[in-house]
Design brief:
The protein has 146 residues and is α+β, with helices and mostly antiparallel strands. It is built from five helices and five strands; from the N terminus they run ββαβαββααα.
Amino acid sequence: MLRWACFPWCVNDHTEPYAADWHSAFPARTKLRDAAIDSSRYSGNGNGLPWLSAQIVVSNDKPQAYGRHTEVWLGYGAHVGELSPAEAREALEEMRGFVNRLKHVVEEAAEIARDDFEGDPEIARLDREAEERRSQVVRSSTEYAA
């Protein structure tokens, strides 16, 4: 631990053979998981990851040679942005503005959604069957094979 000059708030276990050579605080994170809102299914590799997270990370291995660098690691699902404190402050200000715009979008969507309705399952089934028949005709055509 002396080699790493560990901070009291560090949650990394530096005793492991291939331990992280940086210090990390426990992340602040959302309860909402990334996979719960990712309709692209890209985040499938990180099902357990929070939608948003942020933590302090300090790199100070061999500081005489490489210096000491404090960053905020901003996580968004499977992605991580390594930001300086100034860049993190800028991101925070952007988020504050975005939250206000998101609130407006959500309120407008809720108003529009009042007219939403469920379709007829029988009509949907017939449509899927017709689409499958059309696809089979296209796939079996000689022009499609060429």
